[in-house]
Structures
1.
Amino acid sequence: MTKIFDLNLWNYNNFEERKSHIIEAIMQYDPDIITFQEVRDDLRFNSIGHNHARQLNTKLG
């Protein structure tokens, strides 16, 4: 059975506070496929190209 993890990242609202919880949930469920909605690349909150998904991917390895 394929496990899919789908999450709305909710823009950058409290993202720094939520990031560790998101990572813990992904590690706990150990999905085969991960999908996100509302991924943002906003230079007020991240460097160029280092959007939500890339930040999470970097932390997860």
2.
Amino acid sequence: MDVKARVRSYLRQAVMEEVGDGDDLFELGLVNSLFALQLVQFVENEFSIKAEREDLDIVNFSSIDALTAFVLRKTQPPFGPGHAAD
């Protein structure tokens, strides 16, 4: 299952609602402060990444698309696939 599908599946179970990939979870009232922490824990555990202080921006967690982009940024090599650092 790809990143977006895993995020979508988690959110579907957590909020018990169908959410569009670009829907703002905060504007829809689906995320409170406790659930925001759960989202951070989900991405850290599910994708073996660490959300640093600078990552804890609402923009990174506002939608399925935003969460997917955040996870991909954290899991991709810094110079993209197939490129070596100098």
